[in-house]
Amino acid sequence: MFIGHAAVALAAKPLLPRVNLAWPLVAVFWVDLVWPVLLLAGIEQVKIDPGNTAFTPLDFVYYPWTHSLLAGVVWGILFALLILKFHGTRTSTILALLVLSHWLLDALSHRPDLPLWPGGATKIGLGLWYSVPATLAVELTMFAIGVALYARAAPARDRTGSLAFWGLIGFLLLAYLGNAFGPPPPSVAAIAITGIVSGPLLGLWAWWADRHRGA
After folding, report:
1. Tens digits of per-residue pLDDT, 56-86?
2. What is the 3-state secondary structure (H, E, C) of the chain?
3. Which of 5, 81, 95, 116 could crosslink 28 through cysteines, CB 3.0-4.6 Å?
4. pTM here?
């Protein structure tokens, strides 16, 4: 999933009214922020294989350190410990669960390629990506709900809050549809570099928009 992860971050705003949107957004995408670094380092592997599933041309060959269930739990705990310095236990726990939610949503969308732990033979994946219409229906519905929950919990305080937020929503939609219907990426290096650059930019964009929203 992609936009489904963002939907979870947006939907968490009523639970985290005093926490900037950048934190839950980074949390749900955390393992995807680490993943491109490990790709460039040769620790994890992905192949570009059009037709691998109907929705994505990527074959996730080896990524136990970011996308196994055990890794998701560990990353969630580490993320919570980082946040605990700035926020309380409740906020840290919610953000840890948001980190773990990445694996759970990926288990819904991926074909069986998600390990339970590094080195484990069992792979999980319900295969939503085998159907483009089903994937679009599920993720766009999730995203619409997430946007509605966020907008209700954090109304715009000024014009910047409105324009920056809806610009972010529009960008996420365009990126998602481009991934769904655009050409395959040119190389694995391009995938990694795009992930390394776009992750922090999305976090900063969300931080800027959220500063101008909420009570």
Report:
1. 999 999 999 999 999 999 999 999 998 887 8
2. CCHHHHHHHHHCHHHCCCCCCHHHHHHHCHHHHHHHHHHHCCCCEEEECCCCCCCCCEEEEECHHHHCHHHHHHHHHHHHHHHHCCCCHHHHHHHHHHHHHHHHHHHHHCCCCEECCCCCCCEECCCHHHCHHHHHHHHHHHHHHHHHHHHHHCCECCHHHHHHHHHHHHHHHHHHHHHHHCCCCCCHHHHHHHHHHHHHHHHHHHHHHHHCECC
3. 5
4. 0.95
